[in-house]
Amino acid sequence: MPKLTKRIVDALQHDQERDVFIWDTEVRGFGVRVKPSGTKTFLIQYRNAERRTRRFVIGQYGVLTVEFARDLARKKLASVVDGGDPSAERRAAREGMTVAQICDWYLEEAEAGRLLGRNRRPIKASSVAGDRSRIEQHIKPLIGTRVVSHLRLADIERLQADIAAGKTARTRRTGRGGQTSGGAGVAARAISTLRSLLNHARRLGLIEQSPANGVRVIASEKLKRRLSAGEIRHLGKIMMQMEREGEHPTGLAAIRAMLLTGFRRMEVLGMRKEWIEPEGNCVAFPDTKSGPQLRAAGDAAIAHLLSQGQRSPSPFVFPADWGEGHFIGVVRVLDRVCARAGLEDVTPHTLRHTFASIAASLGFSELTISGLLGHAPRGVTQRYVHLDTALVIAADQVASEVARLLDGGEVGSVREMKLMRSKMLVQVPV
Predict the structure, then answer these.
(1) Is residue 77 located within the same domain as residue 64?
(2) Rounded CA gap, 352 and 237, in Å?
(3) In what residue span(s) does the Core-binding (CB) domain sit (predicted)?
(4) 272, part of any domain
């Protein structure tokens, strides 16, 4: 048989019982196969490094010309000489794990506690829940079917742009939750989740490399909203009015607790009575975002928590209206209160910022405020910050000022408060 040409390939007849092969004389291993259906495809036949015979389909005749197929055949056969195996490589690519499969693996392993996160500890259940939400709502719908090995950095950054633009946004359904929006913050968190799970998969050998390495995550603008002294007084006034009108008492109490302590929303809502230690002016959390912590709480805060805890036999300080769990509706209560008060952009985290702002106005250092808020240690010096007398005094000063404002007190003299704090610190043993 001479060199393959268009005329020769056009003249080939099919056999209804078997495949027909015609091989080129110019490029050894290059040929054309005619299926019983009459379909003609170009292919190469070679022996891999293990001396096993393999076939690799280049493409269909009609889509590819004979000359173009011959050029592709030369390149593929040249790779075989260098130890390559085109057939195995294509099969591996087709059978490679998809993004959805990697995501499912990550969720299964993380929920079982087999993956270590921050501080070399198993990833927290709350973090995994947030990751699951971002995976199901953003990552899977956009790139779940893509093979990880085919993804490039540009694909990851395009995913981030699509999420930020609201491509996966959904309108709110009736009932709880149901709203998914776009924006820089949502996109940044989704990409951070994807980058983290891909790095876990790479580290454990499921994939060779992570396509998300080097991605530039959108910088989201940090929330700076905090309540002024006047806004705190106004909020306290509205809360008292709404309490008399029948607003949810547990929700109002939780709002007050967040302002008096600076604790995170779920730290307040999930607080158990047994964790409160009045003698030490603290709450002993067995687990927080930064691990187990003793968190200082002022007298006003401790009194409020103890009073709230006496309202129900539930083990939770802020119990649910039904069932054995804790209260979860504080965001809705806060929204109603702020709407009534005419205050905009107020979230539970705003109350935490407000606590820190009051502490700063009283002259407490950034290190002390960080200790009050329970931030994870970021330096050698900060590791020595613990629940000492000075930290308790700071918590008491801030809680006292917040309580005074909530109860309608006028803004006190910051100078007088600082002087009082200085006198109290002098009595602290070194």
Answers:
(1) yes
(2) 19
(3) 97-202
(4) yes
pLDDT digits (tens, 9 = 90+) for 211-265: 999 999 988 666 578 999 999 999 999 999 999 999 999 999 999 999 999 999 9
Residues 6+ apart with CB under 8 A from 34: 12, 13, 14, 15, 19, 20, 21, 22, 40
| pLDDT tens-place string over residues 197-211 | 999 999 998 888 999
3-class SS letters over the chain: CCCCCHHHHHHCCCECCECEEEECCCCCCEEEEECCCCCEEEEEEEECCCCCEEEEEEEEECCECHHHHHHHHHHHHHHHHCCCCHHHHHHHHHHCCEHHHHHHHHHHHHHCCCCECHHHCECCHHHHHHHHHHHHHHHHHHHCCCEHHHCCHHHHHHHHHHHHCCCCCECCCCCCCCCECCCHHHHHHHHHHHHHHHHHHHHCCCCCCCCCCCCCCCCCCCCCCCCCHHHHHHHHHHHHHHHHCCCCHHHHHHHHHHHHHCCCHHHHHCCEHHHEEHHHCEEEECCCCCCCEEEECCHHHHHHHHHHHCCCCCCECCECCCCCCECCCHHHHHHHHHHHHCCCCCCHHHHHHHHHHHHHHCCCCHHHHHHHHCCCCCCCHHHHCCCCHHHHHHHHHHHHHHHHHHCCCCCCCHHHHHHHHHHHHHCCCC
Domain that holds residue 71: 6-94
Residue corresponding to tokens 């709230």: 308
Co-location of 17 and 81 in the same domain: yes
Please name the residues in contact with 240: beta carbons below 8 A apart, sequence gap of 6 or more. none
Distance (Å, whole) CA 267 – CA 254: 10
Nearest Cα neighbor of 393 from 361, 423, 357, 421 is 421
Token code pair at residue 225:
């909203």
Q: Answer whether residue 217 is part of any domain.
A: no
Assigned domain for 388 exists? yes
Pair 111, 53 in one domain: no
Statement: the pTM of the whole predicted model exceeds 0.85: no
Give the pLDDT confidence of 251-292 residue by residue, as tens digits: 999 999 999 999 999 999 999 999 999 999 999 999 887 778
184 plus 263 within the same structural domain: no
Please count the CA atoms within 13 angstroms of the CA of 280 that sit on its side-chain side.
Answer: 12
CATH number at residue 238: 1.10.443.10
Write down which residue in 71, 94, 117 finishes a domain: 94
